[in-house]
Write a structure and sequence with these properties.
The chain contains five helices and 16 strands. The protein is α/β, with parallel strands linked by helices and about 300 residues long. The protein binds zinc ion.
């Protein structure tokens, strides 16, 4: 979708916005269980996987985005590039927009939905990156994790990037409003962590290349000229699928359990959950890590 269309779009003054974060779907997008009502879907990169037939994988992904239009009527579907799409960045922007015609492809650009400013980048930031992110950005999607946050692999090595964390802390100095930094890349780090210093929810929304981690769902509530965020759902579907070693082959396990954290209940009225969620956001990382640890068979070397 052309960003110019966004300018013409008269976004209504919605007071509550449902935002769902996914990433690292690696062609397993069909397996995701998405909430029925989504206003904004944000995919933080790595929608392709195998080295061959990349163009065809983009087409498959774009078709799925189109299907979501019919099934879920999601008004804004934001896509950024992950390291698996690095080849993509050398294509002309016109080509990228054509190939991802059913979504909104961002590459160091901002997008406005319902008065909420979203900045989308790609895999890793370059120097002077902070100047690219506008102060008004409340949601920042970058594929790589910030240093020290949900960035540890099972081998105790960090995949995080210090520049990203510093940039988001700097934003908090100039305009003190809550933010979400959405990312993926480190498949082992799925979860949510709130930083007081950055006044930011850090959301590792990876599905681990597998549909075991469920999409992370926040509700944004309008408060004057900005929004406050409340966690509605995160967690893991353990035993659903197991990755076997380093061969990138997958085996489906029968009788899977769906395990959601205490905030999750798709059938409950989300308004009832808001207070509970705002108090329990600090626990969400703990819950998510517990869940993702239980998925420790899913070792990966090519995030
Ligand atoms: Zn990945």
């Amino acid at each position: 979708m052309n960003l110019e269309k966004n300018k013409e779009n008269k976004n209504e003054n919605k007071s509550e916005i449902d935002i769902v974060f996914i990433s690292d779907t690696h062609q397993f997008h069909e397996e995701l269980i998405l909430p029925n009502k989504i206003d904004i879907l944000i995919h933080s990169g790595d929608f392709t996987y195998k080295r061959k037939k990349k163009k065809n994988q983009v087409k498959i992904f774009n078709n799925w985005l189109g299907k979501l239009d019919k099934e879920k009527k999601i008004e804004h579907k934001i896509i950024i590039m992950g390291n698996h799409e690095n080849w993509f960045k050398y294509r002309r922007m016109k080509t990228k927009l054509k190939w991802l015609s059913n979504g909104i492809y961002l590459q160091n650009q901002t997008y406005n939905a319902y008065g909420l400013t979203i900045f989308g980048s790609s895999h890793k930031p370059r120097k002077k990156y902070s100047k690219l992110i506008p102060n008004s950005a409340q949601i920042i999607a970058i594929h790589a994790p910030p240093k020290g946050i949900l960035d540890m692999q099972y081998n105790d090595k960090s995949r995080g990037n210090k520049t990203i964390y510093d940039c988001i802390c700097d934003l908090n100095k100039s305009k003190k409003m809550q933010r979400i930094n959405a990312f993926g890349h480190n498949h082992e780090g799925y979860g949510i962590q709130f930083s007081e210093e950055a006044n930011c929810f850090f959301v590792n929304s990876t599905t681990n290349g597998l549909p075991s981690n469920i999409p992370i769902w926040f509700k944004a509530i309008r408060e004057n000229d900005h929004f406050k965020f409340f966690l509605i759902q995160s967690g893991c579907r353990i035993d659903f699928i197991e990755r076997i070693g380093r061969t990138h082959k997958f085996k489906r396990i029968q009788n899977s359990n769906l395990i959601l954290n205490q905030n999750s209940n798709l059938n409950q009225n989300s308004n009832q959950n808001l207070n509970q969620n705002s108090n329990s956001n600090s626990n969400s990382n703990q819950n998510s890590n517990q869940n993702s640890n239980s998925n420790s068979n899913s070792n990966s070397n090519s995030n």
